[in-house]
Amino acid sequence: MRKFIAVLGALVCQATLANQCLDQFYADAPPYLSKQTLKQNTTPICFNGFAVMHSGISKTPLWSAEHLTPQRLSQKIKREDSFHEEDQVPEQYRATLKDYKASGYDRGHMSPNEDMPDSVSQNDSFSLANVIPQAHHNNIDIFWKLEEATRGMITKQNQDVYVVTGPIFSGKKLNSIGNGVLVPTAVYKAVYYPKTGVIGAYLAPNDNSLQVKAVSVCAVEALTGINIFPQLNDALKRKTYDLPLSTTNVKADIAYTGMDTQSQCAPAMTQEQIKQSQNAFGTATSHTSATGWLQTFKNILATLFEFISKMLS
Predict the structure, then answer these.
(1) What gap in Å lies between CA 17 and CA 48, rounded to an integer?
(2) Fewer CB within 10 Å, N side or C side of the chain?
(3) Is 303's pLDDT higher than 80?
(4) Measured between alpha carbons, how far is 210 from 138 in angstroms, rounded to an integer?
(5) How far apart are CA 31 and CA 21, in angstroms?
(6) What value does the mean pLDDT of the chain take?
(7) How does residue 19 score in pLDDT terms, banded at 50, 70 and 90?
(8) What is the pLDDT of residue 304?
(9) Edge-to-edge strands of the sheet including 186-193?
(10) Residues 6+ apart with CB under 8 A from 56
(11) Is the pLDDT of residue 172 over 70?
(12) pTM score of the predicted model
């Protein structure tokens, strides 16, 4: 009986962690690297509150995904900077703090600190696996406003959003900092609000020009080689909306602006590919801290107690 309970507990624990990770993706489907060259030296990581696909080629995330809800954003915590190197990424593929020192670029969060509901998640967000070399004003002006606008859409309209944020690397010759950390040419933030059907992406050059525009998800897929929302069809991903660029632009109704018929959407995924992608994150490196493990253990005990009670009744 003890052995049975131990095995069951391990299975429940694994399932709990896998579910927590897949919850960050719309319909439990992680963004998929359609472009084969992107898959080299990648590391999927399940952080507390978000998930990342890290590239050992660029030494940055290729994408960082999170599921934001009104309840999650109601948890307010004080910011405590704790940038750190990611020891779950093989040493030769990871960025270091030294790489960013005097580089001229900010350590730009992809899943931002202010989206995090607790100190454990906040600490995870400062991992360099969630960071890119970002132009200063792109970071503190453009993307800060976009992040605020996204949170404003959630709280003012009482709806969830699935967010995927990441870098774009365009051109044959890319700049780098430190020991080979590639500098993105642009940065995107794709959003999908299931309640209202609003969908789209923000796209900004990674410079200090303060330029930004709203585009379709397909436009970002064409630039990145990534299927951002695998469970959504092309017709939906081609739609464009007048996405708010700051909290002052958040309105009750976000205007539909048309269809992007020019961009090449990422190829549709088969159910087998989706399953393989889910399995990769189901067994991905998990950043469950002591606090996180305590909560997980409590959940396991509750599940076990319920199961045993049913067995004995």
Answers:
(1) 10
(2) C
(3) no
(4) 6
(5) 13
(6) 89
(7) confident
(8) 52
(9) 213-215, 198-205, 186-193, 161-168, 60-68, 50-55, 42-47, 285-286
(10) 40, 41, 42, 43, 89, 90, 92, 93, 94
(11) yes
(12) 0.87
Question: Looking at the predicted structure, is the pLDDT value of residue 271 above 50?
Answer: yes
- Cα separation of the two ends of the chain: 16
Mean pLDDT on 181-200? 98
CB 70 within 8 A of CB 77: no
Bridge pairing between strands 42-47 and 226-227:
unpaired
The full DSSP string for the chain is -HHHHHHHHHHHHHHHHHHHHHTTSGGG---EE-SGGGGTTEEEEEETTEEEEEETTTTEEEEEEEEE-HHHHT---------B--TTS-GGGS--HHHHTTSSSEEEESS-GGG-SSHHHHHHHTBGGGEEEE-HHIIIIIIHHHHHHHHHHHHHHT--EEEEEEEE--SSS--EETTTEEPPSEEEEEEEETTTTEEEEEEEESSSS---EEE-HHHHHHHH-EESSTTS-HHHHTEEE---SSGGG--SSPPEEEE--SS-PPPPPPHHHHHHHHHHHHSSEE---HHHHHHHHHHHHHHHHHHHHHHH-
Alpha-carbon distance 243 to 192, whole Å?
Answer: 11
Rg over alpha carbons for the chain, rounded to the nearest Å, is 20
pLDDT confidence of residue 76: 86
Per the structure block, which two tokens stand in for 121? 């998640």
User: Whole-angstrom Cα distance, residue 66 to residue 133?
Assistant: 20
259 pLDDT more than 50:
yes
Write down the pLDDT at residue 277: 94
